[in-house]
Amino acid sequence: MTQANSAAKTAVAPPDHSKANKAIGRRNLLNGLIFIAPNFIGFLVLILIPVIQLFYIGFSKWSAFGDPVFNGLTNWRRLSHDSNFTASFINTIVYSVVHIPLTLAIAFALAVLLNTQLKGRAFFRTVAFFPYITSIVAAAQVWNMLFDAKSGVINQIIKIFTGGWAPAWMGSTKWAMVAVIIVATWREVGYFMILILAGLQTIPGELYEAASIDGANGWQQFWKITVPCMRPTLFFVLVTLTIQSFKILDLTLVMTNGGPGTSTLMLAQYVYNVAFTRSDFGYSGTVSLVLFALCMIVTLIQFWYNNKKEK
Amino acid sequence: MTAASITPAAGAKSPSADIPFNKKPVSPAKIIGTVIGYVAMIAIAAFTLLPFIWMLLASVKPNNEVFMVPFKWLPSVWHFENYINIWTKSDMLLWVGNTVFFAIIVTFLQVFTGSFAAYGFSRIKFAGRNALFLVYIATMAVPWQSYMIPQFKMLSSWGLVDTRWSIVLLQAFGAFGVFMMKQFYDTIPEELAEAARLDGLSEFGIYSRIVLPLSGPSIAALGIITFTNTWNDYMGPLIYLRSQNLQTIQLGLKTFISQFNADYAMIMTGSVLSILPILVVFLIGQKQFIEGIATSGMKG
């Protein structure tokens, strides 16, 4: 598009094309850099440089004072027999493996629901999105009170059905993770619902009309039209959701602080703990690199998978 | 799944001749699908709203009724005065003031630098543009949690920890704003800028006189999203801010919760107040908010 623009420029420029092109190229470069500079300088210094530094810090010894000192693979050997790291890694995976399909399925179902002619869907869309804009601190606090083992509303309801038994939620190493997943799903479903809905609305209605004339039922239309048309959207949603799940930090930090024990300690919170409670910045960099790698691997696998499917 | 039976044209059978006045004969499958659809919608809406309703009611209950067994929804006495007392019991006004200050500065910087850079990426063809943009996109996939430590050490070596600068710098230069604005600028016809260029308008003139006036809705969307993110940010202030007089609403609320840990009604009052402004912002700018998210995702 912009090539056409510079081509148009050369048409009115003096006959010496190569010289004119060079001048335009120089001017465009200057203009482009001027426009990008205010954001890029901030971005470079505050994001890009720290990301690059991470690769050195992860292989260094660095305490509260002084500069990082390269120590090769020492941190990585330590990682291999650090039970807290193993726990946080496994917790993050367990959380993601449950949270991702759960959120995706509910968000998809809700988006399909909102893509119909049902009355009140605008109100419903607003309501479903509420939790996503609610602050983590307030959300975690109210859910903690609802999940209260002795006299919380949730357990009072459960006890009606089970005749007195109810999970201990935040007081139990098994149930705390379940509670975290419930709250995280409650919070994020509305957001992914919006992304999926936007994708659904780009599917031309004629496809469904043609299919129903050909006698395809709703179930067949769903699998043969909706799902294939939604692949790019679902791909984007899956990548976002996966990365969002891997990097979970503030919800568990506020809601359970990783406990009881290490039962809800997540990778990102371990990074935070190692850095800010133990002042072991080098080792926290190593754990950060694991988190970084996890997100990158998933992104790459999904890119590769999507490319393959499209061929 | 109910999903299948309620896709747009689902269940529309060929018109049957024996019901002449009914233009669209409704099949039983469609009725069932609609009923299931409504039931699901109401159930999910109730589940979603329940914590909010509970929070609101708990905030005006006497403390001993918040955890009553068996639970009661409505308080015996309505303590609306909690919403007045909290301003003297806590530094709520200071927290709100600090947070509004951060949110406004960050939103302004994000919108200004983001739209400026997006114009460069979208409308000026220069060497290395695509490679540079790829770097932006790639860092969007890198979680902040993985580089927060080097970033913290860097800002602390500059002596910016526990200053207002730290939060502003932390939030203002995200790749998200650039990405979102570029998505929008790409849809503006090139001919508009082209005509202006032939008339001798500079790139900055084209940006400020032609492109910027057209981008009201996307700027509103980016502004609302950034404002919400900054208002709700907990980790940034937690790591960087120590002084009492710099506390933001999220940080203050967390401290308040641990100080008044038995004053349940007061805690819920604080929680309601921390959500309320964002709720209002969201309800006013809902259209832009949701459209902005739908076109570009959101920094999470």
UniProtKB/TrEMBL annotation, chain A:
GO terms for biological process: transmembrane transport. Belongs to the binding-protein-dependent transport system permease family. The chain crosses the membrane at residues 29-56, 93-115, 122-143, 175-198, 234-256, 281-305. It holds the Pfam family BPD_transp_1. SUPFAM superfamilies: MetI-like (SSF161098). It comes from Bifidobacterium biavatii DSM 23969. It is a multi-pass membrane protein. GO terms for cellular component: plasma membrane. It comes from the Bacteria. InterPro entries: ABC_transporter_permease, MetI-like, MetI-like_sf. This is ABC transporter, permease protein, probably The fructooligosaccharide porter. Keywords: Cell membrane, Membrane, Transmembrane, Transmembrane helix, Transport. It is found in: Cell membrane. Residues 89-302 form the ABC transmembrane type-1 domain. The keyword Flavoprotein does not apply.
Automatic annotation (TrEMBL), chain B:
GO terms for biological process: transmembrane transport. The keyword Flavoprotein does not apply. Keywords: Cell membrane, Membrane, Transmembrane, Transmembrane helix, Transport. It is found in: Cell membrane. CDD domains: TM_PBP2. PANTHER family: ABC TRANSPORTER PERMEASE PROTEIN MG189-RELATED, ABC TRANSPORTER PERMEASE PROTEIN MG189-RELATED-RELATED. This is ABC transporter, permease protein, probably The fructooligosaccharide porter. It comes from Bifidobacterium biavatii DSM 23969.
